[in-house]
């Protein structure tokens, strides 16, 4: 009995206190009908673990701002839209509230200060609005290790959420439901030490519709290459950010990280490079079910820019209407210098993107794998209406239609990789080139094309379907109804490399000059095996035209309407 009595005596009970604009500090403050008038009085009575419940209304002055909550739960009974703690714009306080010892806030609006909330503790914030802050909406100070935010609103803050300049102890940050509007940076976590392990952002809307807005999300952590930081961003919208340099939407940089971006929308962001998403460092990035629409870059990668050793996987995502005015990669620019880094695309669409080179994708270094994807109506003023690549590239079960460029209406390759480029079971239709290579332009490297259709492509000069200056192997497939001045189907200028074709059909291609099916020049070597020519047209060599090149053929079928014209 004595033990039970002592245990009962040792229990402490949390108290609940009440404040109201219509209360009085002479009240008991212990019930809604007898509330205090201001928060300072309630905090004077409250102890760690207590709750202060706030009636709707406006609270201002030194008795309601620039206060420290020590282990207190502050709850607005009517929600953030009706309960406001406000400083003054003429003499801003350093912060409205400083939170320590596990304090939490719910259903409150905090307005007009340098910083809204300074967290020096792990904390949970729910239904909190932060407005008109010259520095931070929420500052994650030393001691803020695990922070959770739900249903947040940030407006007109220099930074919505940021960490301190040095010594940050932040480990995990989760945001579920949030509106960030007219903030310089929505979220800026740039100084966290090796303790950082996870940041999750879900159901958030970042709207940069303000001239001074820079980035929606800026996450920079190069502190440790031994700890893998996890970034999870889902069901969120990033829009209307305009920043003069890189990464207006989301900027990710880490020594070692994994990032999942799922069900997000990036649109109408503008900057120099990576205006939707900029990735730097050693990050394994997965992007799924996400749209990049109408982003604009002055230099490269309007929607996506990836550098360093980052690996990117795209799945069932859409890149549409993204534009680069001065460089490459209207949809994405991949600049990693490591040949071991992968860029993998599954079941994606690239529509109406434009750039100087690589209207949809510009891939100078990273290995590229594309499966089951569609490239439509992309444009490049120079080369590669859809794709421009200089590295190992594999394309499978994909379609390229109505893309345009000066060289290589759909695809431009200048790969020096030993493995070269492989294209299989894919269709190239109605692409066009202002000069050469209506569908494909091969400047160097090796291409293998297997089981593909090249149809209705047009080049104003040479190679309606393909223009090649290097080693080309075509196994199976149909080359039909393509048009050019010379080489209606293919124009071959590949010396000293050779072109090999097996089980290929040339049908109804047209050259106003030489070689309706193909035209080969300048000592190129061409080897034909089980190749057929029918209904092709050309001023000379309706089947094919050979000028100082060598053609070796076996099992070749040429119908009566076609002819061969070879000078060698």
Automatic annotation (TrEMBL):
InterPro entries: Beta_helix, PbH1, Pectin_lyas_fold, Pectin_lyase_fold/virulence, POMP_repeat. Pfam families: Beta_helix, Chlam_PMP. It is found in: Cell envelope; Cell outer membrane; Secreted. Keywords: Cell outer membrane, Membrane, Secreted, Signal. Residues 185-361 form the Right handed beta helix domain. GO terms for cellular component: extracellular region. NCBIfam families: POMP_repeat. This is Right handed beta helix domain-containing protein. It comes from Vannella robusta.
């Amino acid at each position: 009995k004595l033990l039970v009595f002592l245990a009962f005596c040792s229990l402490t009970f949390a108290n609940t206190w009440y404040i109201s604009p219509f209360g009085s500090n002479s009240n008991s403050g212990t019930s809604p009908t007898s509330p205090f008038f201001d928060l300072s009085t309630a905090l004077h009575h409250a102890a760690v673990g207590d709750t202060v419940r706030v009636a709707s209304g406006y609270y201002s002055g030194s008795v309601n701002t620039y206060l420290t909550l020590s282990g207190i739960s502050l709850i607005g009974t009517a929600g953030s839209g009706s309960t406001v703690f406000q400083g003054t714009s003429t003499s801003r306080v350093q912060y409205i509230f400083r939170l320590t010892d596990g304090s939490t806030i719910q259903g409150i609006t905090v307005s007009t200060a340098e910083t809204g909330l300074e967290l020096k503790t792990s904390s949970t914030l729910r239904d909190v609005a932060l407005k008109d802050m010259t520095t931070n909406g929420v500052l994650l100070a030393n001691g803020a290790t695990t922070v959770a935010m739900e249903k947040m609103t940030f407006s007109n803050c220099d930074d919505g959420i940021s960490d301190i300049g040095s010594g940050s102890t932040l480990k995990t940050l989760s945001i579920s439901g949030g509106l960030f509007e007219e903030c310089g940076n929505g979220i800026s976590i740039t100084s966290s030490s090796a303790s950082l392990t996870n940041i999750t952002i879900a159901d958030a809307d970042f709207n940069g519709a303000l001239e001074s807005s820079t980035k929606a999300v800026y996450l920079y952590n190069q502190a440790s290459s031994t700890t893998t930081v996890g970034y999870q961003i889902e069901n969120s919208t990033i829009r209307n950010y305009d920043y003069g340099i890189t990464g207006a939407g989301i900027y990710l940089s880490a020594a070692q990280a994994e990032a999942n971006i799922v069900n997000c929308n990036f649109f109408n962001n503008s900057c120099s490079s990576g205006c939707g998403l900029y990735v730097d460092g050693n990050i394994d990035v997965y992007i799924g079910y996400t749209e990049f629409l109408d982003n604009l870059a002055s230099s490269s990668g309007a929607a996506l820019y990836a550098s360093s050793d980052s690996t990117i996987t795209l799945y069932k995502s859409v890149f549409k209407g993204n534009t680069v005015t001065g460089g490459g990669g209207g949809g994405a620019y991949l600049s990693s210098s490591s040949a071991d880094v992968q860029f993998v695309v599954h079941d994606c669409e690239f529509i109406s993107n434009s750039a100087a080179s690589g209207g949809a994708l510009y891939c100078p270094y990273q290995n590229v794998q594309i499966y089951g994807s569609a490239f439509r109506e992309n444009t490049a003023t120079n080369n590669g209406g859809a794709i421009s690549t200089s590295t190992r590239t594999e394309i499978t079960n994909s379609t390229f239609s109505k893309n345009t460029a000066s060289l290589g209406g759909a695809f431009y390759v200048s790969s020096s990789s030993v493995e070269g480029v492989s294209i299989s079971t894919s269709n190239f239709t109605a692409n066009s080139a202002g000069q050469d290579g209506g569908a494909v332009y091969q400047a160097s490297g090796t291409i293998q094309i297997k089981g593909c259709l090249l149809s209705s492509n047009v080049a104003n000069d040479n190679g309606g379907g393909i223009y090649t200056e290097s080693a080309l192997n075509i196994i199976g497939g149909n080359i039909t109804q393509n048009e050019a001045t010379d080489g209606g189907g293919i124009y071959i200028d590949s010396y000293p490399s050779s072109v090999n074709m097996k089980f290929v059909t040339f049908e109804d291609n047209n050259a106003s000059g030489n070689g309706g099916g193909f035209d080969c020049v300048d000592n190129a070597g061409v080897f034909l095996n089980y190749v057929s020519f029918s209904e092709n047209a050309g001023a000379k060599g309706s089947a094919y035209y050979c000028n100082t090149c060598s053609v070796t053929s076996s099992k070749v079928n040429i119908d009566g309407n076609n002819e061969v014209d070879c000078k060698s």
